[in-house]
């Protein structure tokens, strides 16, 4: 057998080093702001069992018909081809499908305490708008994000296939700086959750609903509620685009499907609701420093050079 010379080991070391360098991951920004929103299709693969969860804005307080954003959003979803059943422990508004869980005056902690009563309904989509009353009452604002995080954990743990759309707060004219603080905490929380691959999407209400679209410095006007529907709709499209949405599970009350007869009973209209145009900002992300990437690449180069130097030294031994 021919004896392997030191130069052979030099070549092998170089090949190993080149393999390591070529196999090192290249980190790139996968988000493309130019990618258009997912276009609506005529039919969808499963129904949406939607839980509107929050306080008085979720209920539709101060809207003349009591529907708030819910009727506009439901009509948009039906127009896009989704079968929809809104669920909850309360009913409010003139719309047929008027179930919801919006409780006047409730803070995050009160909604969290109530959450155990809604688990059995197993929604596959939760629209969560909470925190305005925490701001209005100046209640532990600095921990709003942590308390919301606990609520999200409970919901995800007990409704495994659900997608949660978390809303930032609409403008309030009484404690606006506290509302902004809570919204900022939510954006940071969403970035962390999304980095962990949670099925969470932010619906950013804070920049779209303005102070002149509020009836009492807190609750939206009819136009404001319709704009809220636009923001929810954009977030639902984002959830669909990212592949978050799944079919609802069957329960003792819901069998996972909606019959045509039932859908007709729930529908008010399936026509185009002509929601206001809205362009959603990019979903929040955690900024990763390039220093770690450079460090890893520099480490590979250092290892390669050291291997070559060792082999050259062996050649002269």
UniProtKB/TrEMBL annotation:
One of its GO terms (molecular function) is phosphatidylcholine lysophospholipase activity. It holds the Pfam family Lipase_GDSL. Residues 255-291 are annotated as: Disordered. The keyword Transcription does not apply. SUPFAM superfamilies: SGNH hydrolase. Keywords: Signal. The keyword Signal applies. Residues 1-23 form the signal peptide. This is Uncharacterized protein. It comes from Penicillium coprophilum.
């Amino acid at each position: 057998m021919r004896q392997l010379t030191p130069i052979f080991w030099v070549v092998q070391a170089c090949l190993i080093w080149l393999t390591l360098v070529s196999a090192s991951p290249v980190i790139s920004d996968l988000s493309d702001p130019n990618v258009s929103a997912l276009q609506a299709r005529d039919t969808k693969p499963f129904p949406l069992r939607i839980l509107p969860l929050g306080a008085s804005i979720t209920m539709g307080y101060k809207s003349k018909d009591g529907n708030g954003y819910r009727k506009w959003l439901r009509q948009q979803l039906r127009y896009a081809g989704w079968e929809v059943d809104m669920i909850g422990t309360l009913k409010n508004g003139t719309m047929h499908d008027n179930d919801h869980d919006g409780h006047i005056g409730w803070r995050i902690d009160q909604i969290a305490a109530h959450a155990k009563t809604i688990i059995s309904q197993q929604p596959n989509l939760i629209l969560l708008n909470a925190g305005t009353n925490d701001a209005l009452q100046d209640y532990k604002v600095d921990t709003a994000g942590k308390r919301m995080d606990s609520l999200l954990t409970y919901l995800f743990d007990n409704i495994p296939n659900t997608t949660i759309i978390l809303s930032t707060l609409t403008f309030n004219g009484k404690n606006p700086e506290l509302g902004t603080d809570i919204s900022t905490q939510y954006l940071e929380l969403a970035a962390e959750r999304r980095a962990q691959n949670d099925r969470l999407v932010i619906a950013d209400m804070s920049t779209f609903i303005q102070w002149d679209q509020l009836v009492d410095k807190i609750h939206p006007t009819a136009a404001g509620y319709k704009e809220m529907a636009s923001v929810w709709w954009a977030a639902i499209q984002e959830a669909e685009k990212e592949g978050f949405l799944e079919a609802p599970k069957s329960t003792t009350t819901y069998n996972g499907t909606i019959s045509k007869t039932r859908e007709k009973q729930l529908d008010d209209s399936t026509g185009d609701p002509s929601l206001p145009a809205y362009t959603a900002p990019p979903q929040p992300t955690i900024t990763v420093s390039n220093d770690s990437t450079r460090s890893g690449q520099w480490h590979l180069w250092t290892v390669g050079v050291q291997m070559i130097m060792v082999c050259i030294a062996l050649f002269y031994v």
